[in-house]
């Protein structure tokens, strides 16, 4: 399924969830068909563990969505289906929608997110922090050092 059709399906499911006020087994089944059971479960876990945050900056009214992941906080821009996670970055050209985006859309549909209101003066500092690239442990090749006798 193409990214556009997956995104449209997600929008439709979220509209139904908003109208019904809850996530049903039918909704979960539709999501799993498009995104896989593991990805949907991760999104539901994030939702149930209250890991979705909405920041509203005043007086500008700018909104930033954050999903607290396993390694760090991820910046999600729902209007363009963007996430700052590596999974999104490496799979974007394959029509991929990561679990952070799914979790954010579900949370917004249900009104289940933590709301933070901050002054605009904090926006630049926070956005820089959220946009930081993920840190990865050094690869095995970089951690090995050669001794004077030529052994590693």
Q: Which of globular, elongated, flat, extended, rod-shaped describes the shape? A: globular
pLDDT averaged residue by residue: 86
Q: How far is it from the N-terminal to the C-terminal residue, by CA?
A: 47 Å
Structural class: alpha+beta
The total of helices stands at 7
Radius of gyration: 19 Å
The largest sheet has its strands arranged as: 4-3-2-1-5
Order of H and E elements: HHHEEEEHHEHH
Strand percent estimate: 15-25%
Poorly predicted regions: 137-147
Q: How would you characterize the largest beta sheet?
A: 5 strands, mixed
Please provide the count of β strands.
5
Helix percent reads 40-55%
Question: How does this structure look, described?
Answer:
The structure is a single chain. With 152 residues, this protein is an alpha+beta fold. 47% of the residues lie in helices and 17% in strands. It contains seven helices and five strands; from the N terminus they run H-H-H-E-E-E-E-H-H-E-H-H. The chain has helices at residues 3-20, 25-35, 37-48, 86-91, 99-110, 123-131, 140-143; strands at residues 52-58, 63-68, 73-77, 82-83, 114-119. It has a five-stranded mixed sheet, with helices on both faces. Helix 1 runs antiparallel to helix 2 and helix 2 (25-35) crosses helix 3 (37-48). The longest helix has 18 residues, at 3-20. The N and C termini lie far apart (47 Å). The model is unreliable at 137-147 (pLDDT under 50).
